[in-house]
Fold these 4 entries.
Entry 1:
Amino acid sequence: MVTKCTIKSVFLLLVFILFDLTEAINPTPQTTAFRNALKGANLRCKVTQHNVQLIDVVCDLLSHELDKLFRMIQRNNIHELKVKKNRYGRKRINLYPLPPFYCEIIKLESFQIVEISDYAFVNVEGLTELYLEHLRLTQLPLFGYLPDLEVLSLSGNPLTHLTNHFDLQHLEPMLSSPRIFTGVELLERIDLYNTDVKITAYDMVDLPRLIKIAPPIAAPRGFVLDYGFRSKADQAFINDLRERAKRQY
């Protein structure tokens, strides 16, 4: 038998659900203005309200439109920015430093990006996940200070090495210089599907939190998923490298 209390509880639950859906659908005035600005610039983007503070942006762009998008996007607060290359865009481009804005997740996919400038993402506040997938990168930039970055995907790039200090001969002269991952100490996961990268212990000198490498074949010998190096000797070796890097940099 259905009681009045049960009916009241169900009614209140439906009210809360409806309120949440309304909040998720209704854009703020700032979101509406940004959406209209993108439309006025003829950029094929969908802007939705993620929550009261943040928006999600999904775009399908030609290569030369990417720079225009980043000029317009500054000072916005974004949860996820996903930009895919339009199938007609074949122009090869460089990616230069992005303007200041807040964004937790950036996904760039299928662009003919052949080079990314050093420190290209340091003006992006709150960046926790960065996906640079199916681009044309043969080497990585200096990422610089990205204190929140936890996930990096480089899948589908023609990369052969993760860093330019993949052995002791290359690392020694760079111990006193900025390296590709100097300042990215919270990185936990790297995806390297469809690349020719085989990570070495020397690559990991600036990545003390890295415990997830995919696919597993890209990981160094003795590296265990969700743990790190199995051998105490291997762990001591990488710790020694890190101490030397700290002393000399």
Entry 2:
Amino acid sequence: MATKGTALGTTGTGKAAGQKPEYSPDQETAKILVVEDRPEHAEYIKFLLENRGFTVLSASRERQVLQLLKQGDVDLVLLDLLLEGKSGLSICQRIRNEEHFDSIPILILTSRTNIEDKISGFQAGADDYLTKPFKAQELLARIELLLQKKRLKESEDRYRSFVENLDDLVFMLDPGGTIQQVNRKAAGYLGGEGKKGPGASFFRFVAPDYGKIAREVLKQISQGEKVKNIYIRLKFGKKREIPFELTGFGLFRGGKLLQIQLVLRDISHREELQREIKRYMDMLEK
């Protein structure tokens, strides 16, 4: 098997010169900043990453690192711990102290193997730590894992932002019907009870005549069904009772129900309009 060797390690990729790299959908758009002051090491790492389809930026000084990060779109920083004139740890800390960069994964590379240095790296804000010499495939695997975690967090953040700003009420329940979270809209309806919502049973807020419907809804969801447009009424405070249209589904992993999500749309105005139309029709019939 053909290999390319340096003090860092071997590629172990078996790619012939000029052969097209293997791309994956995750790698095509990933941009990696390599911070390394030894040109031969920087070139070796660049060879590995570009051969796997990553876009590579290079820097050897803190000022260059910050400038490239400010230009945006950096997905991961590969940071050598021993840099001339500046510790990689201080650069790591500087990145973490910048609000716009604090979520970018940082993978530290170093020849230091003692546990104290590893702990210092993690305390400075690194997400992972790899000692030299390393296997090329291990470096690539760690990079891909960090990128997957970053994409998952970004996806979760987008979903959380969407839910939080939704104009409908969202209740997130455990499989037993206990409220785990509510969005801003639901908290507004709960009013003074908003702080009591999480940890309370969802059935606490269901109007007395609709408890059976609510239990049936949760039962269907726990069996893997998605329910839509179910009429239900919730009560807030002692007298306030509001009609809603309910949609619900479950989040499963390995066939096990993890969470129930309920989306409720206030249809008070719709009901009021229907009553107005009925009153008008009754007047015409007289």
Entry 3:
Amino acid sequence: NNLLNNILAKIQANHAGADDAVMLDDRGFLAETNATNLFLIRDGVLCTPFGHACLPGITRAYTLALASELGISVREGDYSLTELYTADEAFTTGTMGGLAHVIEVDGRRIGPADRQGPGPVTIQLQSAYAQHIPFVSLPFQS
């Protein structure tokens, strides 16, 4: 898998002052970010791009299974940037960062303007994930 596009997108995101870049598939639908998998929540349903459009990450798969265990409806599909902009919540998943909520995309705040921090579905998944996958802090040695 050639990751050159992801590297170039990350460089452009950094120049724009963003943490990551949202990547689209060859049809213009959401795929992933340059380094993580992408999820959005609409009306309590956990939505994520089809696995063929992204790297099918381990944390992504675990999050989908965890959501099912918690009774959260899950839907894989084709999603547009507009659907991300207007989502109730959004988060990314990755081995290094677990589940990280998304505050804004392209200068557009995700979810209610008055909400501070992650939304309720994201919090529920983050809490369950943390119970199953404890983070271990190891001392850095040079």
Entry 4:
Amino acid sequence: MSEILSTNPLAIRYLILYEVLLKRSVEEGYQNLCEALGNNQYDYVDYQFWYYRFYHGNVDLEYDRSADPKQLVLFDLPNE
């Protein structure tokens, strides 16, 4: 089953939306998704994006993120 989910981004988004509708925290929802897919098979930053998008009422599951600016994370900062 995890193979089917890991190759279908739309199915994963439905699972994230489901976690939001159940009013689970972002951390608990991510943990549940990791258990369904197998540990850390889905990027936490991507999970947060979809979680908070759905949380704020934007439930377009077909949204294309490719036009969005690249999100920087702590590890992207230069080392000095």
